[in-house]
Amino acid sequence: MAKGERTPDTSAGKLLKPPVPAFTKPPQQTELDQKLSVCSKLCFAIGGVPNQVAGSATAFFLQIYLLDVAQINPFQASMVLFIGKAWGAVTDPVVGFFITKSRWTKIGRLMPWMVGCTPFVVVSYFYLWFVPPFTNGRFIWYLGFYCLYQTLITCFHVPYSALTMFLSTDQKERDSATAYRMTLEVLGTLVGAAIQGQIVAGAHTLKHCPQHNNNTTVSTGHLGNGSGAEIVKRIKELYMIAAGVIGGVFLICTVVMFLGVKEREDPYISKTEKQIPFHKGFFLVMRHGPYLTLTTAFLFISVAIQLVQSNFVLFCTYAVDLRDHFQNIVLTILVSAVVSIPLWQWFLERFGKKTAAFCGITWMMPFTMMLVFIPNLVVAYVVAVSSGLSVAASLLLPWSMLPDVVDDFRLANPHCKGYEAIFYSFYVFFTKFAAGISLGVSTLCLEFAGYDTGACRQPAQVAYTLKLLIGAAPVAFIVTGLLILLLYPISEDVRLRNKLIQTLSHDIQIEFRFVLSPDHS
């Protein structure tokens, strides 16, 4: 060493090293923040199709199936619908709890739930549409299989809903994936209604009294004897065929999702960080204002949609004499919804999610009332196209807004990690429970109005009740939900602020881990 040259201070060698760029080695950020490919988004969206296919068939046809095919009385049908929905609602938070306790596997933490329950969902769904040879125990049969189906479909739907948060950390990518999902889910609803409707609609038409032939045996009686019994047998076979087709769709879509979607670990939770107890996390979620406001608002809105869905076939059959067209009207509603999903995705990006919710859902009210007061075929198709716009908004917006609520919660409670499933499971819990109550009450209303099981015509009071269930009741629920949504605090400015804070926090966390890593020395 030359004379007069300073000897380096080896005790501070690390501090005297040339600075290393902070982001030269951030493998976790590179992996997690990459944009989702179109293929990944499509495969994720396809995973939501089977639930909607089966849900559409049950929403539109289960009530009339229980009343006119299985021929249980309206009170028993209302109990099946209410208890089944309520049971499904109760299982949502239970499944959410077990998901939070699940360990990470080679295929993820959520994927094993979806893949494992799929075969059992298909079996329970098939037997839900099977008419047993005995008559006295049919109520127990349908109640048992409907509760079993609700339990198993919950084991699929809750992890699938929570999977949105583990596709990407980028809000824009999650919103895009949600738009893909909603488009294909509405398409799935369309497929379910098409399969079920087109297969069984012809038989339902045969069952009713033809206006042009008042001398037929079926026109003046019930479906218990003679040719009526043969028609019922044919309808039973068609329902089972439809159930088998929908079960096949369920299996295929689940396999496609499993092969095309990669579940990613949560980047915001440290592997050495100890989670807070579940009950504390639950109470924190239930006290989060934006979550309560959003859930309550869409609870009322979803009840309105459910009322229209479950009573629409009965309404067309017995109230407005459109029994020969109901399957095509249903398809028109759903085609309109599928086509309008990209429109609402553009609208929410341009004007904000809250504005999109108000514009989209309000659109439904005047047209629903129009069909009640002007019940003709042309008006029915106009109403169908207009209602499809609102159905699309009601499906897209809550699932697009829930990730924003989760992000807001994470910023407000930085030490409460891994409880995303609570948000999704309890959202589904509240909406299912309310829908179960509305379905049970609406079927009881038909009982009080004098619904005659198996008859080809119904009393005038039944037609009046169906008009209330399709018109006034949904409008009241929608207005209530929109008034509550006014209190929703996450505006576009708040959402963008949360996104910026979360991105900065994530970057700082990665840089801090990199600086402290042994390789950095």
UniProtKB/TrEMBL annotation:
Pfam families: MFS_2 (PF13347). Keywords: Cell membrane, Membrane, Transmembrane, Transmembrane helix, Transport. One of its GO terms (biological process) is carbohydrate transport. One of its GO terms (cellular component) is plasma membrane. It is found in: Cell membrane. The keyword Cell membrane applies. Its main location: membrane. The chain crosses the membrane at residues 110-128, 140-163, 184-206, 238-261, 282-305, 325-344, 356-374, 380-400, 421-449, 469-490. GO terms for molecular function: sphingolipid transporter activity; symporter activity. Residues 1-21 are annotated as: Disordered. SUPFAM superfamilies: MFS general substrate transporter. It is a multi-pass membrane protein. PANTHER family: MAJOR FACILITATOR SUPERFAMILY DOMAIN-CONTAINING PROTEIN, SPHINGOSINE-1-PHOSPHATE TRANSPORTER MFSD2B. Belongs to the major facilitator superfamily. This is Major facilitator superfamily domain containing 2B. The lineage of its organism: Eukaryota, Metazoa, Chordata, Craniata, Vertebrata.
